[in-house]
Amino acid sequence: MLLARRTGTPTLRPTEMLAGDWFDTQFAKMWSDMTRWLEGIGQPSEGGIAFVPPVGIERFDDHYEVHVELPGVDPEDVTVSIRNGLLEISGTKKERRLSEDGTRVLSELRYGTFRRILELPDAVEADHAEAVYRNGVLTVKVPVSEAASKVTVPIKTG
To answer: CA distances (Å), 31 to each of 35, 53, 116, in order?
Structure first.
């Protein structure tokens, strides 16, 4: 019988698996993978699959731009708030109801409430944040506080 060997998987004796570095590394990787997986799980909506919008964050010299893909979401059903360096984007993607004479054959569409909380690494000026919804993408521009700006520290010698 031919056994397939997984590439990239270390072959370790049980005593080596208990060694701190290997175990710590594997546990940290598992924890990271599990956390990423759990972040993708939302609250299932009635008769549908949870909707979790994907997010992208860009850092510029003087601001952050957060892009959230929200196709099919009415901007009036979205709330954006910033508190203590946390940007919260929440809302609802409503299910499109069938007409009385239509019969659903297949639906892979996701609906329901969503909530994303993102930590912004620098101090920000929440009062000057702007949000624009265009072509199914919400863009939130958050200025970085002057206190959080990059400062060059001179090096003294002697």
So the answer is: 6, 22, 20
